[in-house]
Structure formats: C-alpha cells, structure tokens
Specification:
Elements (H helix, E strand, L loop, with lengths): L2 H8 L4 H9 L3 H19 L2 E4 L1 E6 L25 H13 L4 E6 L7 H14 L4 E5 L5 H10 L3 E3 L7 H7 L6 H14 L2 E8 L6 H14 L3 E6 L16 H14 L9 H6 L3 H7 L4 E2 L6 H4 L15 H14 L3 E3 L8
Parallel strand pairs: 1-8, 1-9, 2-3, 3-4, 4-5, 5-6, 6-7
Helix pairs in contact: 3-10, 5-6, 6-8
The chain binds S-adenosylmethionine, iron/sulfur cluster and FE2/S2 (inorganic) cluster.
The site of iron/sulfur cluster has 9 residues, from loops.
Length: 344
C-alpha cells in the first residue's frame, strides 16, 4: 500500500512518512497526495468552498509573540480599534453581500472586556439570528468563553501555534504559556464551541519532529477547523531576518491534514495568497475548503498588519468577495456563503 493510501485509510501518519512527504521531489508522488486529499474533500463537502467574512476588530495587542507585527513591542505598528457601531456595520454589509458566517478577529486588546464584548455578541446574535459567529480573540478565561458562548458565539479559532512546548517557548516571551493555550482549546471544546486550532508552516525552529507533534495534536483534539498558513517574515519583529515559510510545504501539509481528518473545515489562508499569487487556489486544490475575504473597513485594513505584504488591504468588501469567488469558480469550485457548518 502506498504512503498516501495508508494515511487515508488509517487516518494516521508516522514520523518517517511525514519526513518522506515533506522532503520528496517526486512530483508524481505529490500529485497523488493532492489528488487523494481533494477526493476526500469532495467526498465530504462536494465542490463547495465556504466563504467567511473576516472582520478585524483591533490591532492593539497585549501580547508579544515574536513573529507577529501586532506584538506590543512593535512601536511602528499603527493601532486602531473598531467601534461597536463599525462592527455592526461590517456585519450588515457582510449580510447584504450574502455572508452567513462572521469571523471577528483581533489582537488581545484589553478594551474588549466581557462587559463590552458579551453584549456586543448578544446584539449580533439578535440582529443576525441565522448567522454563525466565529471569534478569534486569543486567550481568555473559561468564564469569558462561557459567557460569549451563552451570548451566541458558535465557533472559536485559536491556533495552538506549535504542539511542542520547547518550540512554543522560542516563539513567545516567557510570560506566555503553551500549557495555558492548550487548556484554552480544551475549555472551548468542552463548552461546546466548534473549535479551530492551527499553526504557521516554516516558523523559526520548526522541525519535522515538531510538525509531527502538530499532526498528532490535531488527531487527538479532533477540531472542527484547522488554520495553517506559511510564516511570513515581518519587519520590526525579532524574526524579521528569518525566511518565509514555504508555499509547497504548506500545500503538502494541507493535503495531509485533509487525509488525517477528512471532515475538517480547512481554510486556504490569506498568508498563502500573500506568498503566491495563486496560493489560495493551490490550497483549495490541495484539499482546503474555506476562504475568508476581508470585510473590515477599508481605512483600517492595512493597519491589521500581522505580517508584511498582506493582500486584500486595498479592496472594498464587495470587491474582495467578488475576487475570491471568481478565483474559486475559475478552478471549478462553487463559493458558498451559507453557514457552512462542520459535517459530522
Ligand atoms: N490574537 C489572536 C491570536 O493570536 O490567536 C488572533 C489574531 S492572530 C494575528 C492570528 C494568527 O496569525 C496567529 O494565530 C498566528 O498563527 C498568525 N500570525 C501571526 N504572525 C504571523 C506571521 N508573521 N506570519 C504568518 N502568520 C502569522
Ligand atoms: Fe497578539 Fe495574536 Fe499577534 Fe500574538 S499572534 S501578538 S496574540 S495578535
Ligand atoms: Fe481579497 Fe482578491 S481576495 S482582493
């Protein structure tokens, strides 16, 4: 049995198989991997690609992750925070464009206390009862996650960043704890959220061994979503001189994740589109099935500068949506704006 069939049929991978896939230059073997992953995605979700509207709430962050342009020590970062009214307007605009999932993402901005955020989520829930509300606001207390869930949030994206505690410690300052991040993911799952974990591909100090741990972590957690994208080197951060992650490695990992976990909602990320003009199309063809065009107000787009050269910063929401939908149709996929829930 080939390695690819083995991963598909057992939903498991060995360290040696992973090494082989990530290092091979046998293009036929890679084509087999991609085709098998796409076949699995088609079997579960057909030719649909789910389109989620991304709203970037705030570029303030209390954390100092070494890789991120929004880290608190980046004195060149331009900080903004959307007002409550601006957030509702983004949702309204998204709703009119057909979106039925809103992803509210931001730095860990202390302004968004539970006292402010919980009523805001409850309001969005009231105004848009048939929409999924996805939050991606970092680490919060269990009580906070519970209150946001009770107010109507359905999904939470919190990349685990790396499943290796030693690697995590090299990507983050000492005050940040790998165990805490993992605990947050467990709590979110227990509360009942549809949960997304994930990691950057090609982050500094990443090895085949740490990636193997990431894949084993995904197998254990069985998340509803997995967000992976290449690390993008960013000016005025401690990693500004490190090379970008590789598009090709990201594509191979997307395919492996699809084979390990066929039902997962797997975005072709903006970071992939940033490092290659057809990165998101390639991601879909490698087994991804979600894209997230930007719904943030245009005057703040460029300031949500997680990494350098981020795409989709100059286009209006409708333009970005039309662009991504056209890109999906061109490769034979149908963009779908409905809730696009995880299929058990
Ligand atoms: N602050 C929240 C958090 O960290 O979970 C949500 C926003 S944060 C900007 C979203 C993700 O961006 C992070 O989980 C990280 O994986 C990714 N990211 C940050 N800096 C990056 C970089 N330089 N290249 C690629 N992805 C990056
Ligand atoms: Fe803040 Fe998230 Fe960036 Fe870390 S990755 S500095 S938590 S925005
Ligand atoms: Fe955003 Fe093309 S997808 S501008």
């Amino acid at each position: 049995m080939s390695v690819v069939e083995n991963i598909r049929d057992t939903h498991d991978i060995s360290l040696e198989e992973l090494r082989q896939i990530l290092t091979t230059d046998d293009s036929e073997a890679i084509e087999t991997l991609r085709a098998a992953a796409r076949e699995e995605a088609d079997r579960v979700y057909g030719k649909s690609v789910f389109v989620r509207g991304l709203i970037e709430l705030s570029s303030f962050c209390r954390n100092d992750c070494l890789y991120c342009g929004l880290r608190r020590s980046n004195d060149q970062a331009v900080r903004y925070r959307l007002s409550e009214e601006q957030i509702y307007q983004c949702c309204e605009k998204g709703y009119r464009l057909g979106f039925r999932t809103f992803v509210l993402q931001g730095g860990e901005d202390g302004w968004f206390t539970d006292e402010r955020l919980v009523p805001m989520v409850a309001n969005i829930r009231r105004r848009f009862p048939n929409c999924a509300i996805t939050l991606s606001l970092g680490e919060r207390s269990r009580e906070s996650y519970q209150a946001l869930y009770d107010a109507g949030a359905n999904r939470y994206l919190l990349r685990h960043e790396t499943a290796d505690a030693g690697h995590y410690a090299r990507l983050h300052p000492a005050e940040m704890s790998w165990q805490h991040r993992i605990d947050c993911l467990m709590q979110l799952k227990e509360i009942g959220y549809q949960v997304g974990c994930g990691f950057m591909v090609g982050s500094p100090y990443q090895t085949v061994e740490t990636l193997f741990k990431d894949l084993q972590f995904i197998r254990q957690l069985q998340p509803h979503m997995v967000g992976i994208g290449p690390f993008v080197s960013t000016h005025n951060t401690p990693f500004e001189n490190y090379p970008n992650g590789k598009v090709e490695t990201t594509l191979r990992l997307l395919s492996i994740i699809r084979l390990l976990h066929p039902h997962v909602l797997l975005p072709a990320t903006t970071a992939l589109g940033t490092l290659h003009p057809q990165g998101r199309e390639k991601g879909i063809l490698a087994g991804a099935n979600v894209v997230m065009p930007n719904l943030s107000p245009i005057d703040h787009r460029k300031d949500y500068a997680i990494y350098d050269n981020k795409i989709c910063t100059g286009e209006e929401a409708a333009e970005c949506q039309a662009c991504i939908e056209h890109r999906m149709r061109r490769i034979g996929y149908e963009p779908v704006v409905d809730r696009g829930d995880y299929k058990e």
